[in-house]
Amino acid sequence: MLKNCFLYIINIIICSWVLCIPGFCSLPNNPGKLIQSLIENAEKYSEKGDFHQAALIWKTILEKLDIEKNPDQVLNAAIHIADAYKKLGYHQKAVNIIQEYESISNKNPQSAQTILFYNAASDIFASLGERDKSILYLQKAAQNARMTKDAYLLINILLNMSIIYKNYHYFGEAQAGLQQCLNLIGQLNNKKEVEKFKPKILVELVRIKFRWDEYSQEEVLKALDKTHKEINKMSECHDKAGLLISICTLAQEMMTPFSDAKQYLIHLIHKGLTDANRIAQKFSNKRLISLCAGQLAGIYEIDKNYEQSFKLTRKAIFYAGNNNPDILYCWEWQLGRLFKATGQVDSAVESYSKAISTLNPIRNEITVGHRNNIDIFNYRIKPVYLGLAELLLEQAESTKQFEKSRQNKYKEVIDVMDLLKKAELQDFFEDECLAHSSSSDSKVSYTVNQNTAIIYPITLLKKLVLLIILPNGIRQITVNVGSSQLMSSVLLYRRHLQTRAENLFMESGPKLYRYLISPMKHLLDEQNIDTIIIAPDGALRLIPFATLYDGKNFLIESYALATIPAFGLTDMKPAKLEHAEVLLGGLSEARMGHIPLPNVKVELQVIQNIMTASTLLQNKKFTIENLTYAFNNKAYAIVHFATHGVFGGTSDTSYILTYNNLLKMGYLETLLKVGRFRKQKVELLTFSACQTAMGNDRAALGLAGVAVKAGVRSVIATLWYVDDEASAAIVKEFYHHIHDSSAITKSKALQKAQRTLVNDMYYWHPNYWGPFMLIGNWL
């Protein structure tokens, strides 16, 4: 779709380019003297980087304009207000402005201001990651620009389009668009317009050349140098300082892959940040001053010049103040790293804790508004929590002689990891309220039942730490395997699990077993543990622990297993499944490109007989409408879906298949929550034919998130698509055990069902039974 859109837009622009008219739309026609004066003031504030004041003035301009008489000027003001809000990080306010004034743009779609309005809308939605909306507005802008033949308009559209394509790694198309922009710049007569566009275009070209393997190091560095010189030609303004900081950030990224050019890059960064700081001081822009000081401190940190780095980091913290929390937490985090590097662990813990306190209220805002399509959460948020956890573990190790203090430190570590896991779920579902969805008590006891152990694997850069909550306390085991090595082992094992030929899991399985189970086996034996609960982190979400193989046996043969999203997000009370109302739904027929599941009929019939299910929706009856009616009219304790399900990297790409549509996770959550208002939660939700992306731990995170967000106590789901005959066999055994014994836990019922297949000559391979996982309450 993206490529087709590119060809569509580029063809429009190429057709228009031949007859370009320079400078057509620099300013709406004949603004009044008062309006003109206000516009000039607003532009001055924008040049200084005071976007708050600029937005206020543009709002005053809007209030003084007559929409009917001056529609172009109204749209011009709306564009500037939306842009100011976007730069301030108020993305929803920017969207609200676009929506409020869109009706005006529709009245005259071919006016220059309407085209710029559509382009601004595209830019804002691109910043929010809403690609389809962004492309829709971009197409409207391009189609209407074709009629004007205006170079200024076409450059705006092409630049926006190119950035979108670059962010989705269509580097060739992005580069072609940017080259067209450079060609069109020759059509502009206005020096300010040339100065506005050319450096931005060159910065984007450098980004492409750096990330695209078509270019050599020499070519990238040459482009970087050329761009730096072009930026220096600009008159001093906020945009110039911002672009200098941008290329310095890019140069810092280059320092690792281009290690032999390190000194050149450091020199460029020093020069660029010094110039940017001069501009920031000139306009008394505290945010820019903070950015310059903080980034330069980061360079000194890399060079281990800690004295200078401390000095500049503290300066960055001072100038960031409380009005810039999005950068303040970065400098508090940086200060923590400096304290750690110089052996000041207690001070490091204090700085990391401050960073997390600053970060938590604004975390959701940080993960939106970035057009560079980098994983902001894993790059800029998760390392702060992991860094604090690692420091607390160091403190715990230093208090070995004081067992109570050490236990308290371990509890602090688990608190931090739970905060991280809640943050990951909130990021996945884009929902700050998710943390309150759990029904567990706010105070966590950190105690477990006899014969049960809860494992917190903490994946750090150079080691794996296993925190084990046992009936007699918390223990720490450190394994000498770094995060990248562990990730490689996990991905290899996952591929082998899903490949039945040649039993390759027997080769890769024992290594993971040695990392994850062997180091703590003696503790499990001492405590007579028969149930292991895992709170997996990162790549470890991609594998079912039940399949871990020691060379002779699978882990499920010795222990019942379950996973939890976090200790503090799990309801620990025993389940009440006696006389439960049961809803069954599923598809055996092929629908919407998905293959048929012929054994679903048998699976649903067996469960209906065992559990005396009151509601069965199958094939044509398994529709969103019928599900809505069922949930609205009865409170169910058990819900079982035997249909294709997909868990992608976001909640929007996660769904289950019904007869007539895709049931997205957001609406499924709404349905599952209905019973809560009747004081009947869903105790058990089962997806017997779902799958997650092989290398995407965020997709696996979505499985856990469904339980937490909808308030479901337990979920049984599959990590990959299972032979539906094997699925029916496991499901049958599980429900038999649940129904026949009220004393059995869900984890042990699933263990018995999986062991039945392990002992079957045809289904013994973990590909058949391994993907079934119990998530949440295991009792």
From TrEMBL:
Spans through the membrane: 5-24
Organism superkingdom: Bacteria
Location of the CHAT domain: 508-777
Keyword Transmembrane helix attached: yes
Keywords linked to the UniProt accession: Membrane, Transmembrane, Transmembrane helix
Alphabetized InterPro entries for the sequence: CHAT_dom, TPR-like_helical_dom_sf
Protein name: CHAT domain-containing protein
